[in-house]
Amino acid sequence: MRMAADTFPKLLLANAVNRGTRPAIREKDYGIWQTWTWAQVLVQVREIAAGLAAVGLKRGDKLAVVGDNRPQLYWAMAAGQCVGAIPVPVYQDAVADEMAFVIDHAETRIAVAEDQEQVDKLLVIRRKYPTLATIIFKDPRGMRHYADSGLLSLEDLQARGREFLASHPGFFEEEIGKSKGGDVSVMLYTSGTTGQPKGVMLTYDNVVVSARNAIAFDRVTADEEVLAYLPMAWVGDHMYSYAESYVAGFCLSCPESGATVLADLREIGPTFFFAPPRIYENILTSVSIRMEDAGWLKRKMYHVFMDVARRAGIRILDGKTVSLGDRFLYWLGEFLVYGPLKNMLGLSRMRLGYTAGEAIGPDIFDFYRSLGLNLKQLYGMTETSVFICMQPDGQIKPDTVGVPAPEVQINIADNGEVLVKSPGVFVTYYKNEKATAEAKTADGWVHTGDAGFFDADGHLKIIDRAKDVGRLNEGTLFAPKYIENKLKFFSYIKEAVAFGDGRDYAAAFINIDLAAVGNWAERNGLAYASYQELAAKAEVYDLLQECVEKVNRDLAADPRLAGSQIKRFLLLHKELDAADGELTRTRKVRRRFVADRYTSLIDGLYGDADHAHIETSVTFEDGRKGIVKAELAIRDAARMAPAAEPLRKAS
Amino acid sequence: MTSSGRVIGDVLLQVDNISLSFGGVRALTDVSFDIRQHEIGAIIGPNGAGKSSMLNCINGFYHPQAGTITYKGMARKQMRPHEAAAQGVARTFQNIALFKGMTVLDNIMTGRLLKMRQNFFMQALYWGPAQREEIKHREHVERIIDFLEIQAIRKMPAGRLPYGLQKRVELGRALAAEPDLLLLDEPMAGMNVEEKEDMCRFILDVNDEFGTTIVLIEHDMGVVMDISDRVVVLDYGRKIADGKPDDVRSDQRVIDAYLGVSH
Q1: Do A575 and A491 fall within a single domain?
Q2: C or N: which end of chain B has fewer Cβ atoms within 10 Å?
Q3: Residues with Cβ < 8 Å from A409, sequence gap 6 or more?
Q4: What is the mean pLDDT of the segment spanning B4-23?
Q5: β partners of residue B149
């Protein structure tokens, strides 16, 4: 049987033939890694697919899949696709109400769930949306006495599948033969920070071609080891775990439980690792804490060799010249520190690492790269089957997201917004033409909603959400979040709010980080009694002025942003607080609200005086309210001349 | 939830006229009740009512001066704890009694000791039948670890775990013995609400999945009323009530015992 493998069902058949005895998926269960080969996976998927057909799943139906990363759930997705249904993976930690929206909106009639927790939620949803007729569960525990109709264990479903296959031989292969590249392969709901989630419909061509391009870009092989631990409903997991494993044919490993991921990581030793910045940050934090608790010798060694790594590691990784002495020290460090550390973290075999989702702090990024780990950034979104930009090996810059991925075209709109056209661009949002029209032009360009530009080397730099980007009066781009993030990368700065849209120059409020600045103050013999007192000290202002000027130097290096250097700043007398409405509950600054609340301070920043007066109401922890009055100093920061050519590297 | 579709069987444990005293202190006076197969029975009562003494009598740690305990149809006056264990009685303790330096896995593995047949030397050599036996037991222990959702702490020394998890490990060790009768001494003492909910879930699941009969002592009335089929109330060593949770809750003597009454 020869056909072009342009859909996952066809890829599965091809993999079962070409590499039938090679491992396809693993799961740690009862303390042991259980493995299924591609041939075994085919048997399972065939049974599940036939079972789903037996309980009434039709071509074009949506199949909800809810749970942690489990082989059976990945099989259920493939099985759904085999009979022409569209899998809809759902975030497993969503509460019933959030899940209900997706189940209802996607008109799901059949759902495959992991366990009792998910089934209970689905049963609640079913009371309101009785169209959800059948719920299949993988783990029967705790549900022995559930008498609800349409509840079926995966085992029973597979048994029905076997019966169905006995009476319909050839059904499975026939159905697979019907799948075409242009069919919708999956529907992924974007979490949607505002409004209801939107169902992004991606075709096989979108997903398979994008995955194929990404595989070619990074030379991903069938021998990779990959850990699948990110939510199955997230496009990142769908592309990296599901799509790439089918296209490249590598083996996917599912951790034992959410809590064991780090231990499982160590046992699997992935060659290819994908994680949001938060995970890299957590790993680094736990390393730092453990090093501080380690014995004197280990601690000393760690610090000495990490200095070497920072100096030489990244240059070696990027293939740049490094002095012979440093090369030797780095080699020694690899033997004494980096190697054991990577082994400890389960990253010794990591050939390729990606981070995406949000900006990663340069310190964190450099830490991993200096250990010799090829960590890279990529930029993408659900609507484009992830891949928009990727960093090529050896051309890594912490503040760009790399060059356009293969077959991706990028245009920068007049307002700075990044527009994308690629083979991965989605068809439509499910049942939401209005949103589709807003997100995608008639000729297939997707509005990313992000503002950015290309630097001299053709790397895309994302600066902010397009709707937040403004302009100074003289016309320079002003990207508040970009500036704030740069400030917040300093450990002394907890929060920052930048102003500048429609003004003559950029200015900023800064919240010091009480722990970091307090520690600095103690070391420098500076006494203070409160946050307010510490933040008002001239020495602290000096310290923070240095940070601001470093940010200005960074901004100056970029001709497009040089004009938005911070001219004046002040240190707020209180921490911005969600209880006062200044931050959202997820700790994002509500810029407009802050601007209204502190008008007198903004007037100060855009006036001539070296201080400003402020009276604010605050809400104390116990709910009482009070008034805080303060006289805040305002500083002028030095602004650098825009660099005509790339700035000399700081030595 | 507890009674949905579950079949309560015959009497598994019959306690008749038990009296226990330590010198002049009468811990239990003439206490009788029974526990049926698959049932979750609770013993409640104010501090010092004799609840733990009652459990200790059941698993043979204390020997009552009067009365009989009939377990699986065999009446007995005296039984040693290891005999009780061999007959399928397992328990957990009010003040956790884990081996603190041993890992969670090894702690639960000790619960299998009574089921191991190979001798010490064969086990030390880890050879042939001893190896097969250990693998079999390890498999069973892994099922319990999976059941209690403690995979992430499998290799941690028990002493380093937070209290709530230690309680869970102790339940795991008791389960490893595949008991017919499980005695839980204050399984939820000192836990926060979330840990209590988890523990309730596990107790119900144990009862449901393995059909284990459970007798528990607990102070949290909400928990007791929610998960038990029947409740025995002790006060000053005497039984003052015995029945379904709702009946016991409205019993005047129980209310008096808990709230105090002026005599």
Answers
A1: yes
A2: C
A3: A420, A421, A422
A4: 85
A5: none
**Largest interatomic CA distance in chain B:** 70
Question: In what order do the strands lie in the sheet containing A23-29?
Answer: A32-37, A23-29, A251-254, A225-227
Q: Which amino acid is at A426?
A: F
Strand, coil or helix: B134: helix
Query: Which residues have C-beta within 8 Å of that of residue A249, sequence separation ≥ 6?
Result: A15, A18, A19, A22, A24, A38, A222
Domain count, chain A: 3
Same domain, A350 and A480: no
How far, in Å, CA of A566 to CA of A505, rounded? 7
- What average pLDDT does this structure show over A227-238? 94
Range of the domain at A282: 275-373
In degrees and rounded to multiples of 5, residue A225 shows phi and psi of -115, 125
A629 touches chain B (CB under 8 A): no
CATH number of B1-88+179-263: 3.40.50.300
Mean pLDDT throughout B43-72?
A: 89
Do residues A140 and A16 both lie within one domain? yes
Q: In which residue are the tokens 């601690």 written?
A: A299
Q: Residue A43 maps to which CATH number?
A: 3.40.50.980
Nearest to residue A75, comparing CAs of A254, A195, A240? A254
Residue A381 CA from chain centroid, whole number: 10
Residues of A in contact with B203 (CB under 8 A): none
Q: What is the mean pLDDT of residues B169-192?
A: 92
What is residue A588's predicted lDDT score, i.e. its pLDDT? 76
- CB-CB neighbors (< 8 A) of B151 in chain A: 31, 256-257, 259-260
- Check: CB of residue A124 under 8 Å from CB of residue A146: no
CATH number at A484 reads: 3.30.300.30
Residue A2: is its pLDDT beyond 80?
Answer: no
d(CA A454, CA A413): 12
Residues of chain B neighbouring A145 (CB-CB closer than 8 A): 4-6, 208
Write down the H helix ranges in B158-259.
163-176, 193-209, 221-227, 245-249, 252-259
Is A391 domain-assigned? no
Which residue does chain A place closest to B148, by CA atoms? A141
Angle at Cα B233 formed by Cα B228 and Cα B237, nearest 5°? 140
Q: Which token pair is A191? A: 């979490």
Residue in B3, B136, B151 to test binding to A, most A beta-carbons within 10 Å: B151
CA dihedral sign, ordered A8, A13, A19, A22: positive
Q: How far apart are CA A296 and CA B221, in angstroms?
A: 52
Same domain for A68 and A217, yes or no, is: yes
Looking at CA atoms only, how far is residue B146 from chain A in angstroms? Answer: 6
Give the nearest chain A residue to B149 (CA atoms): A257
How far apart are the C-alpha atoms of A240 and A244, rounded to whole Å?
Answer: 5
Give me the percent of chain A exceeding a pLDDT of 90.
67
Residues A525 and A588 in one domain: yes
Helices (H) and strands (E) in chain A, counts: 24, 27
Chain A residue with Cα closest to B147: A141
User: A255 CA to chain B: closest CA distance, Å?
Assistant: 11
Does an H or E element contain A148, and which? none
**Cβ contact A145–B208 (<8 Å):** yes
ipTM here: 0.79
SS3 of B162, please? coil
Taking only the tens place, the pLDDT of each residue in A423-436 is 999 999 999 999 99
Residue spans of beta strands (DSSP E) within chain B: 11-22, 25-36, 40-44, 66-71, 74-76, 89-92, 181-185, 213-217, 230-235, 238-243
Q: How do the domains of chain B map onto residue ranges?
A: 1-88+179-263, 98-178
In this structure, the answer to whether residues A292 and A214 fall within a common structural domain is no
Is the pLDDT assigned to residue A646 strictly greater than 50?
no
